[in-house]
Amino acid sequence: MPLPRLAQPVLDDLSRSIDESASLATLDGPDILYIGRSETRRILGVDLSVGSRLPAWCTSMGRVLIAALPAAERQAHIPANLTARTPKTITDHAELDAVLDGIAADGYCILEQELELGLRSVAAPVRDGTGQVVAALNVGTQAARTSLRDVRRIIVPAVIRAAATLTEAIRLQRRG
Q1: Distance of alpha carbon 28 from its chain centroid, rounded?
Q2: Average confidence (pLDDT) over 127-132
Q3: Would you tell me how many other CB atoms lie within 10 Å of the CB of residue 82?
Q4: Is residue 45 predicted with pLDDT exceeding 80?
Q5: CB–CB of 12/139 below 8 Å?
Q6: Given pLDDT bands bounded at 50, 70 and 90, which one contains residue 111?
Q7: Is the pLDDT higher at 39 or at 99?
Q8: What angle do CA 149, 152, 158 make, to 5 degrees?
Q9: What is the distance between the alpha carbons of residues 113 and 173, in angstroms, rounded to a whole number?
Q10: CA nearest 139: which of 4, 25, 9, 6?
Q11: 3-state DSSP call for residue 120?
Q12: Long-range contact list for 49-55, CB < 8 A, 24+ apart?
């Protein structure tokens, strides 16, 4: 079963359980490519659907995917010039490298209004049967509606659980 079809029930359950949109993406050069999405009725400024692309270096899913790469391969997915999308966007390569190291160690990413002001997002890696990161799963929320404390308390664990559920489904499908 293709990954998007396998992921859809997980994305739908996650979205329904926390009343936020959930997405799945893969790394494609300097971009992330959305391959799955479950939306709530709320409208964020970022209009996303399957097939959408965003710069990997300044998105939660992109950072999770880049952080999973060996350090020598990371730069192939990060542009030489990091142009700020908001006043909060990290544009220093050394600072971004440190953030990526932290994401690799933590196993998830919280992006705090770096892609768009007012948008917070959380992503976690999805792995195949060999342990290789093959996608990232995320939830986006409005900063005005969801405090950073609630992001850490509610959304981070939910995203990590959903990514683990999808990872297990991939593992079981591979064995079957």
Answers
A1: 14
A2: 91
A3: 17
A4: no
A5: no
A6: very high
A7: 99
A8: 135
A9: 36
A10: 25
A11: strand
A12: 50/4, 53/28, 54/115, 55/30, 55/31, 55/79
CA separation, residue 144 to residues 9, 43, 106, 108, 111 (Å) = 28, 13, 25, 22, 15
Q: Are 109 and 80 in contact (CB under 8 A)?
A: no
Amino acid, single-letter form, for residue 58 = C
C-alpha closest to that of 140 among 9, 23, 12, 1: 23
Residue 39 has pLDDT above 90, yes or no: no
pLDDT tens-digit profile of 22-34? 999 999 999 999 9
User: Which tokens hold the place of 159?
Assistant: 């995203």
Cα–Cα distance measured from residue 126 to residue 97, given in angstroms and rounded to the nearest whole number: 21
The two most distant CA atoms of the chain are separated, in Å, by 48
